Amino acid sequence: MLRYRLLTFDVNNTLMRVRNSVGDQYRKVAKQFGVNIKASDVNREFRIAYKDQLCRHPNFGVTTSQTTEQWWSEVVHRTFHAAGCDCDKETLDNVSSKLFNNFKTSQTWETYPEVKEMLIFLNRNGIALGVLSNNDERLMSVMKAVDIAEHFAFILPSALAKCEKPDAEFFNMALERLNIEPGLCAHIGDNVKLDYHAARAVGMDAYLVDREGTLIEKHPEVNPVHVLSDISDLEPLIFMQ
């Protein structure tokens, strides 16, 4: 007998990842426009620019009336300038536009090795699947590009929902879509605050994907039973014991 009727998933670092690294993707596009920059420098400065942009303009600009492309363009400009690039605005605008479109495609994204097989397994067992991701409106295009969109009953990026994890409202949207009680649902992600604690706060079960094996050491409050090395570890957990 099934334990869950609905499983919701985070996306980034749970179902899929950027190929190589963000820095490598930025470096390759920059080179097309005659700009040379180190991937390691981009990775370092991107993390800072991205976090700061989320603080200044939460949820990809939804709360401050920015378009998604404007939001990401600011991240790109700040990342390149902080990494030591002194190229002109027009060049960086072109780099930003190219990156924005590239990040819709499978050239930039890939699923983890076990993901497609596990999604097929869950579908065959009659469990509804959904996506709850702090992400912009390109998410559907990305998931189609990596060939996993068809496995999900709904895909809900925060920019379209106009709310984001860890807000209870975001999780409740998923429950209301399929009219399922939270006790029959579980959420799977990689962030202790945004995925684990937030889902449990609305009454859902929650599991954390820890591909590096370091989560319990950093977060001893998390029950080790709720930690997965990858999503294939879900297989025995979906059935009643």
UniProtKB/TrEMBL annotation:
How is this protein named in the record?
Haloacid dehalogenase-like hydrolase domain-containing protein 3
GO cellular component, as recorded? nucleus
Q: Which InterPro entries match?
A: HAD-like_hydrolase_domain, HAD-like_sf, HAD-SF_hydro_IA, HAD-SF_hydro_IA_REG-2-like, HAD-SF_hydro_IA_REG-2-like_cap, HAD-SF_hydro_IIIA, HAD_sf
Which domain of life does this protein belong to? Eukaryota
The organism of origin for this protein? Strongylocentrotus purpuratus (Purple sea urchin)
